[in-house]
Specification:
The protein is about 40% helix and about 20% strand. The protein contains eleven helices and nine strands. The protein has a six-stranded parallel β-sheet with strand order 1-4-3-2-5-6, with helices on both faces. It has a three-stranded antiparallel β-sheet with strand order 7-8-9, with helices on one face. Helix 2 links the parallel strand 2 and strand 3. It binds adenosine monophosphate. Adenosine monophosphate binds next to helix 2 and strand 5.
Length: about 290
């Protein structure tokens, strides 16, 4: 595996692939890698002969300075894991490489309100920063496809829209969420939890699975949401939202049971806090 720290070093490698008629896929990450990230890399390797992974903690997508500071960083271990899984290039740029003119926000395409709801509402400016960095990374890597996690469902929806708006010439693949044996969605932030909280955090996926069962039984979304929120609070978590939403528009669905529900692509989205850590998950219902 080669490590490129500049756009020029990366371009040298990809130019050679281009001459050899080899396509490459791209997996953007913020590092502190776990099996969820590695699954994206494995998926990319299954479809493409070459894979570039970036590790870059993007300052413009953090709405809280303490969160940016606290974000785990382990580039040496990340490189080892990526080498082992068979990635071809690790793109490891500095802030200066990605933002030579400073970290002011770039112009953002029209995201049709997708960026005002849920994660967008909870973290002002977050998706502007995400679109900004992915646009710059895509321009540096120039991949045929990008692999992302369904765990960040709104991020996938927004990047698909941005890609369509700006004619980014690439496919976007969403990979199902990789979970711990307890059901907890793997996350770089899970390492900030105590052992006890790590066990408690599994309540989130249990509540999601129960909500799906209740939905299938014909219960109404508002009543399921209320019960789920209460269960999370009882378990010692602090829910920020737990909603049944339209998977396309990210608006809450109307309060009709499954048989009368006009929205067909439904997602349950949840954020809950534990020990000051913000845990995010979602569940596809179609
Ligand atoms: P991050 O480093 O958190 O920005 O994540 C980089 C990519 O990995 C994003 O596309 C995430 O959605 C994806 N990802 C993170 N956790 C998981 C997981 N548990 N399962 C699948 N993909 C994940």
């Amino acid at each position: 595996m080669q490590i490129a720290e500049t756009r020029a070093a990366l371009a040298q490698i990809t130019q050679k692939w281009s001459e050899e008629k080899l396509d490459w896929a791209f997996v953007p990450t913020m590092g502190a890698l776990h099996n969820g990230h590695l699954t994206l890399v494995r998926e990319a390797l299954r479809h493409f002969p070459r894979v570039v992974v970036s590790v870059f903690v993007n300052p413009t997508q953090f709405d809280r300075a303490d969160d940016l500071e606290r974000y785990p960083r382990q580039p040496v271990k990340d490189a080892e894991m990526l080498r082992e899984v068979g990635a071809h290039v690790l793109f490891l740029p500095s802030v200066e490489v990605m933002y030579p003119e400073g970290t002011d926000k770039d112009r953002v395409p029209d995201l049709n309100g997708l960026d005002n709801r849920y994660e967008g509402a909870a973290r002002p400016g977050h998706f502007d920063g995400v679109v900004q960095i992915v646009r710059r990374l895509v321009q540096a890597v120039y991949p045929k496809a990008m692999f992302m996690g369904q765990k960040d469902a709104q991020q996938v929806a927004i990047l698909k829209r941005a890609a369509a708006q700006e004619f980014w010439p690439l496919e976007i693949h969403a990979v199902p969420t990789v979970r711990e044996s307890s059901g907890l969605a793997m996350s770089s932030r899970n390492g900030q939890l105590s052992k006890e909280a790590f066990a408690k955090a599994a309540t989130i996926s249990k509540v999601l699975a129960k909500a799906e069962q209740d939905w299938i039984k014909g219960e109404r979304p508002r009543s399921i949401e209320k019960e789920a929120t209460e269960t999370l609070i009882k378990a010692g978590l602090r829910p920020e939202y737990f909603d049944f939403i339209n998977a396309v528009t990210f608006e809450q669905i109307p309060d009709f049971p499954i048989a009368e529900q006009p929205v067909k692509q439904v997602l349950i989205v949840v954020v809950a806090w534990l020990e000051g850590v913000r845990l995010i998950d979602n569940w596809k219902l179609y």
